[in-house]
Design a protein that fits this description.
Helix content is 49%, strand content 15%. The chain has seven helices and eight strands. Helix 1 crosses helix 5, helix 4 packs across helix 5 and helix 5 runs parallel beside helix 6. It starts with 14 loop residues before the first helix and ends with a helix. The relative contact order is 0.16. InterPro entries: Cell_Envelope_Assoc (IPR051599), DUF218 (IPR003848). Keywords: Membrane, Transmembrane, Transmembrane helix. It holds the Pfam family DUF218.
Amino acid sequence: MRDPKFRRPRLPRTRRGQRRLVQAVMAGCVLALLPATWMYAVAGDRLRTAADVPRTDVAVVFGAGLWDGEPSPYLAHRLDAAAELYRKGRVEVVLVTGDNSREDYDEPDAMRVYLTRHGVPDGRIVSDYAGFDTWDSCVRAKKIFGVDEAVLISQGFHIRRAVALCQAAGVESYGVGVDAVHDATWYYGGAREIFAAGKAALDAAFRPDPRFLGPQEPGVERALATAE
């Protein structure tokens, strides 16, 4: 038996009401797409490949999960691109930023170990242990590590948001989107970006402090000094 308190929504019966409903739906769709449009506009001319990205002192690699303590395939692809940029002399230092919110989960250290295995000297790697999301990583790169310009490395579905947020945080950024297999994770990541764009726009507009800020760290400056 139908609950008498529950009433199914009724569509407008008049043409005027139906027209207003359509207009409201269209306006909602436009508003929902505005953050994504902003990201594409900001990052549009700042996306490059590993072959043509401008030479920059620092590359920033964003965490993308661990599998049994090792970088996930998506994160490994990002790190491979960073190692390639270093070997080609396109960057001097790699800032790895990720989650280390608990003792048994340490993205930055796993990323460091992977990079050293692939030819990047340990002294050229700097770890940010409080990169809990993209905005936090961008703000900390600027305020904590003193990064003014960087090459950002991530998958294609994420790189535009990374560039837009780092630009908003004051880091002059170019993005390198790495290849990825179009599996379930890729499709999930792409769908997630639609919703993440809204938060990104709010972060860029209101510029909140990251979850953890802390004191300035000279890691990037010291690593660059060893490169001279």
